[in-house]
# Entry
Amino acid sequence: MPLARRSHLNLRLLSSVPRRQLAGQRVLVRIDINTELIGGRVRDLSRFQAIKKTVSWLTDREAIVILLAHRGRPTKRQAALSLRPYLRPLQQILAQPVSFFVQPIGSRALQLAVQRLQPGQVALLENIRFEPGETNNDRRLAKRLASLGSLAVNEAFSDSHRGHASMSGLAHFLPMVAGWQLVQELKSLEKYLSRPKRPYVAVIGGAKISSKLGLVRKLLRQADAVLLGGALANTVLKAEGVAVGASLIEPAMIRAARGLRAASARLHIPVDVYVSSTAAGGARRRAVGMVRPTERILDVGPDTVDVFSRALKTAKTIVWNGPMGVYERPPFDRATKKIAQVIARQSAVAVAGGGETIDAIRRQRLDSRFDFLSTGGGAMLEWLEGKTLPGVQVCMKGFRP
Ligand code: ADP
Ligand code: MG
# Structure
């Protein structure tokens, strides 16, 4: 088995940090609570629940907890992407007050504010992506962040595929250990997917093929069937010369997507779709190839769902990432719902990952029918590709910056 598949065995664990290194110490915890707001409120609390165990582990041991998190993809300080709306759900789930510090990293004001925190208290810093150096892993930012504490914890599996300053950058200046949830995610992925029982069927959908093409290629070699839906499939259809009208596609990916199907009979793409020509319009069914220039493909059709269902019914292992359509906007949620139901009815091992995919599963209350729901979309996909995630690597025993 490749090392990357056993990475959880090789991690420095939060649970093995001695009490004296926690009591009265400031601990930076990178979390991922990036969650969509609906009507100004957080509806899906799963990412908040996922961090609870690590935070209480620390506060129970009299550590001072400083939470680092992001929201969306800001390019500058933007009030619309503040973490403030996360504060209330965070306090509710942690069942304790959480201070919110908006002062820039490296400022004297922030330094003083964190120094005033008492053992057992928790603070959240403002959107870490407001800092210009976060996404390009600026060393000075990582160093300034590190100066706020004496230990770092990675509790953001779903962000661990990014080598950002508050993730892997921090580990150059502070010891970094793996939080409970991070370890749990790696263990579960390993348990269910490192030696999948066959037939092994993958369902891949969602918005961007650019982030998933590498994985699709890999899965075409590893899995017995790969079922493609979502906007992802539009680009593949387009690459095959099929008219997709005004559908969401990624023009830059057409060349790379060309020949995917010719390369493997294991790839299944939509044979029919639901389209709409206006933003608020209803659904019209079209055979693939019959989409008109003004129409947008917003879901895969019932014949496609049948083809996919047949493949899923033979499976012993199923992995799913990415909705089949714009499931947020009924009636374009039909295929996603149906696929979730088909998977839920199977006795096969079933793993799903990705923010929207899990949301779609939860909306139907089918979560308990899955063996494992990973918080990671991109991170789970990179794990599946066999990559060692940068945020995991820095928590490994023997890691030296
Ligand atoms: P996940 O969060 O589960 O990893 P992605 O982020 O890759 O999934 O993709 C989810 C998004 O893809 C959803 O917001 C959904 O509306 C969008 N999507 C799916 N199918 C289409 C389509 N045909 N056209 C436009 N967007 C789509
Ligand atoms: Mg997503």
